[in-house]
What we know:
Blueprint: H1 11-14, H2 19-35, H3 41-59, E1 60-63, E2 66-69
Helix pairs in contact: 2-3
Amino acid sequence: MPYAELKDLPAAVRDHLPIHGQEIFRAAFNHAWDEYASRGDGEREEIARRVAWAAVKHKYRKDGDRWIAL
Length: 70
């Protein structure tokens, strides 16, 4: 299900990514959710989640428990 606000994101995203990373995740997830509307909800959510993390990884890298801008 798409995320209306940053506070709606899963805790793993909200608690670990900086605000900009959260915004990237939310935008990419919501776009992929719309793009893959023809898939079943379970598959659709998995695809959207993968797309969102891939988008985050274009701008951030993980260093231990922290995400650092590239």
